[in-house]
Amino acid sequence: MTLSFFLSLCIDVSVAIYFRPRRQRADINESPQNTENVNRVASTEGLDAHAYNNLNCNEQNQPLDDTVPQTDHPMDGSASQKIFPEPSVLTGERSDENSCTSQSQTSPEPDLTVKKRRISEPEMKPPSADILVEMIDTHTIEPGVSPTNASSEQIGRMSASDYRVSQLKRKAPKISGRAMHSFMEHPWRHLFKPKPASIVSPFYDAEFPADWYEEIKPSGYTGLSKGLFHKPNNGNPTASNQPKILDAVSPLAIESFRRRHNLNHILELREQNSELPSIPEVGLGDATDEDAFVEGLVRDGYTYPVLYRLKTPYGNGAKLGSVHIEVCLPDRIDLQTLSLDQFAINVRTGKRGFDTAKMMVDDLFWVYSLVPTSKFATTKMPPPQNLREACDPQNTTVWRVHRFAPIRRKLTPATPGYVVDITKVKRDVIAKIYMKGSREMTPITKNRAINEREFFQLKRNRFIIAPYRKPQLAYMVFCNMYASVQAHKELRSHMADVIYVPPAPRAPFGVERAPELFESRIKDKPRSFSMFQQDPKSVPRFLDEVYSTTAGAITACVANSHDKAVYSVIWSSPDVNSYPALVQFQIPIPAETG
């Protein structure tokens, strides 16, 4: 009995010494006073007394209170302390005075030995879902909380994670969203989605190559599906992200443009013989002002513009056509075609005048304001009754441009071309040429050449060069996307009977003869073709320009040998839920000039 009792005492003492906290061990080793205390406890009498006290506590099954806080866990008594208890530090003092009086009588010095508390089986079970949720809520960082300096009183009541959050320096959230604009007065406003607001910026792409979009067929707008709608770019225009210039037009700008140029108000003023708006006289721009272009979207004061396209040159000016369908349809067909003359004011320079010889079909213009044409203001000229009359470039328009701005285009310098035919008309010469990538025959006169004397020396089957670009998008598109599938079908039905008038041939400017080196290489090709020995790296590019230009010229001649007459027939159904279908028959007719 004595031997077993002595062995149990030794085991309890060894366990108590082994599970002593490291921090207290370090303190004992560093302090000589603590070393003496340990030696006292390690003596025979100290061991017997300490083991006797531990034995009494174990026999009575009394709980031991943790009086020293834990420094590696939250100080607010969170759920993590209850579920995963850490070894507590037990000092010589006990909360129960009756069970600990023997220790105070045996050893007057404070007892530094620590005994690890045994973990019971219920505490080893996995935590429940409610407790885990409570833990997550306790340690979750709330982004909306502003950083505050925690005081000493608050530190005692907050968790460690909350304390770390309070010390973080958070930045105020940046609002990157853009306002969404919708049609408010347009007759088709219920069929469109909202569109991001316009941003005044030079970073817009003004190029619309025709091969990037759906090709329009002789059937017109009824054959288009996805080509009628342009998916907007929601990003801000930057140097690395350049949206299309179509995204710069807002539906609010279109409605404001329609409202400011009210046809009914002009008709009332004309009936009352009142003075109609006109263009004020300004100075004539010089040669540098005639080439003034703008980059991206530019406002005229507080006025946002709408987008127009050059349809055809006309006299000393040009005829412009609307790019967006909502500007002229369904009830403002008078705004589809505008006249641009030499009295229009360029907002870039504040002066009038432009060089028609440097304008090309499909060039884009910002239009800010209009005034009635002289013929419409002084005569009883009626407005157009249908879209066919409005699109005819030979008819007099209702409006002419007051303030505008040409948009800069990207031209490829020294684009090769081919002279197909030359016709002399009185004292002038008309040359039919084909430009690489144009897919059509284009007649030009001397005002399109750099040197008139050199233009009169042009011959058939010779190459020319001029600044040029690929064919651009040549039909109208919607400003906003459709709101639903049914809205898509309804909008397509509205466009089924809309006539499509192809633009005029795209005549280049700055035409000149090909360099002598280029012509010498062409003459040398059927013979020895010494270019392989002189400059072999330039051979692929040279052959590509020659073959693509000549093959395109042959194709354009074949297409120009016959005209195409298109007859439209609208088929409808008595079913009110069905949409009418437009059927067009294309009949080739030999051209008179073929």
Element layout with pairings:
Blueprint: H1 2-18, H2 22-30, H3 32-42, H4 44-60, H5 79-83, H6 101-106, H7 129-138, H8 152-155, H9 160-167, E1 180-181, E2 195-196, H10 251-260, H11 263-271, H12 287-290, E3 306-314, E4 317-322, H13 325-328, E5 337-340, E6 345-346, E7 351-352, E8 364-372, H14 374-378, H15 387-391, E9 399-406, E10 412-425, E11 428-435, E12 442-444, H16 452-456, E13 463-468, H17 485-494, E14 512-513, H18 516-524, H19 531-534, H20 539-560, E15 562-571, E16 581-590
Parallel strand pairs: 6-9
Antiparallel strand pairs: 1-2, 3-4, 3-8, 4-5, 6-7, 8-9, 10-11, 10-13, 11-12, 13-14, 15-16
Keywords: Signal
Summed up:
By secondary structure, the protein is an alpha+beta fold.
